[in-house]
Amino acid sequence: MNRRIVAVVIVVIVIAAIGLGVTEGYLHSHSAKQQSGNTLIIASSATPTSIDPAVAFDTNSVFFDDQIYQTLIGYGTTTVNGQTVGSLTPVPELATNWTVNPNGSILFNLRQNVTFSNGDPFNATDVQFTLDRVITMSQGASFHVAQFLNESGIHVLGPYKILLVPQAPYPWFLNLFQLWVTGIVDPNYVNDHGGVQKDSVNPYMSDHAMGTGPYMLQSYSSSEIVLVANPHYWGPQPNVTKIIYEVVPSPATQETLLEKGSVNVALNIPLNQMSTLSNYTNLKVKAGPTSSEYYIGLDENVTPFNNLDVRKAIEYAVNATQLTQFSTFGYGLPIQSVIAPTIESYIPAFKNYTQNLTLAQEYLDKAGYPHGFTTTFYYTSGDPIGSSIATILQQQLARINITLKLQSVESATFNDEVGLGQWPMFYEGWVNLLATPDDGMRPLFSSLNIGIYGNYNYFNNSTVTNDLIQAGKDYNQTQRDKLYQQVQDILAQQAVEVPLFNLENVIPMTTNVHDLYIYPTFDIFVYQVKMG
């Protein structure tokens, strides 16, 4: 399991190619459903796979966890260029405050007088039950937690006090308790409806929910899911009192519904349509950077990419700025390393790889391919960004006589197949959910993760592996920075991939929607939204 699944979902959801046509009957039925008052109507392409936070691992599912469940700590906001946007800064949620001890353990003081939406009281044993459940079920994003916490590290010290002790040193242990997977569930509700089974999902919890958040589930069907304000919510009642999540498979239909004002937010309109939407007086488009990194992978397990000089020739032949500009329609932020610039320890290690066809040819000559070669480039089908990159890359590499055959692959099987180490070149993305250098580099470049475990480039370097392991345990940021910077320098020297861009989170909406903040993690928190 890895964040490449989430990355693919984001690509498909946010920039899906236009599909089914618009029918008058379909539009009429949605127009008739416009709501009065503070109701937010959202159009998305599919139902969630599961709204159980212990299982959810796609953007459709996580959306519901963000509204219904709460974690010990949340995400803050910040101001960038005069605009309020979401930040990764931890802020109190179900924990009012916390103390990080020298050994990395964290003492959380929990909020009192909190209940679940059915009225059951919240306390520290609910936190213990939730974390034990995540580890026992071993689903979805549970590996984030299970890597650093086991049941022996969870200590209830009182009704509203809990100590969490990592099983190994981890500087970002606190960040784990922002992730939706740690959303606190009601033990009574879970146990009354299937309980907890080792290595198994709870089918009932896939489309039922009981949380402490500002919203609760009113109805669930394959075509529409409705949330309403939780009357037992401990915080201020949200301005939006109802959320209607409409399943609208066609991006073209979503666009028309948005233009007509029949929905307030559409999640699957292609990026190339955003400039058109911006021209409507009743619409606006908001965008913000994410913790993602998209790149061209070079599989060192496959000839000729096991040759460093071939990889360097590719680096100098590619115009990454051009690839980004013409494939993301202005919503890709160029990067010069294997993590986003907003991530701790980032350095522009790849900055010297600007297009230089003379150097590219020299490296090809040195590698023994003076007349170039033929290879295959793989990308996800239905992804207009991947398709654009493939076409432009084919043209760029042709200038040094490298012939690219283009091959699209269904998203459902893409990650499994590329992980087998048989694809020489591919377009891929990684969503760094914790927004840490460890989460951004260790899964992708450690030799312990080669293949289906994340290291699709089949990169094997003992210094990099050891540095990543050591840095991931070091509580001294200065020492961590040195190790991570050395890793990035080696990755650049070894031309491990061609970094392209950080893809922005882009959300079009009607102009009466205010304070829908863009978060780097692709989360959406409707309780912050105001309509009027």
Computed Rg? 24 Å
Flag low-confidence runs. 5-37
Structural class: alpha+beta
The helix fraction, in percent, is 25-40%
State the oligomer: single chain
- How many beta-strand runs? 21
Secondary-structure blueprint of this entry?
Blueprint: H1 4-14, H2 24-31, E1 39-44, H3 59-68, E2 73-80, E3 83-92, E4 95-100, E5 106-110, H4 124-137, H5 142-146, E6 154-158, E7 161-164, H6 187-192, H7 203-206, E8 215-220, E9 224-229, E10 242-247, H8 251-260, E11 265-266, H9 274-277, E12 283-288, E13 292-298, H10 308-317, H11 320-328, E14 332-334, H12 357-367, E15 373-380, H13 384-398, E16 402-409, H14 411-418, E17 425-431, H15 437-445, H16 462-471, H17 477-493, E18 497-503, E19 505-510, E20 513-514, E21 530-531
Parallel strand pairs: 1-10, 1-11, 15-16, 15-17
Antiparallel strand pairs: 2-3, 4-5, 5-7, 6-7, 8-9, 9-10, 12-19, 13-17, 13-18, 14-18, 20-21
Please describe what this structure looks like:
The protein is an alpha+beta fold. It is built from 17 helices and 21 strands. The protein has helices spanning 4-14, 24-31, 59-68, 124-137, 142-146, 187-192, 203-206, 251-260, 274-277, 308-317, 320-328, 357-367, 384-398, 411-418, 437-445, 462-471, 477-493; strands at residues 39-44, 73-80, 83-92, 95-100, 106-110, 154-158, 161-164, 215-220, 224-229, 242-247, 265-266, 283-288, 292-298, 332-334, 373-380, 402-409, 425-431, 497-503, 505-510, 513-514, 530-531. The strands form 6 sheets. It has a 6-stranded mixed beta sheet. A 5-stranded mixed beta sheet has the order 8-9-10-1-11, sandwiched between helices. Strands 4-5-7-6 form a 4-stranded antiparallel beta sheet, with helices on one face. A hairpin with a 2-residue loop joins strand 2 (73-80) and strand 3. The longest helix is centred in the C-terminal third of the chain and has 17 residues, at 477-493. The radius of gyration is 24 Å and the shape is globular. The two termini are 42 Å apart.
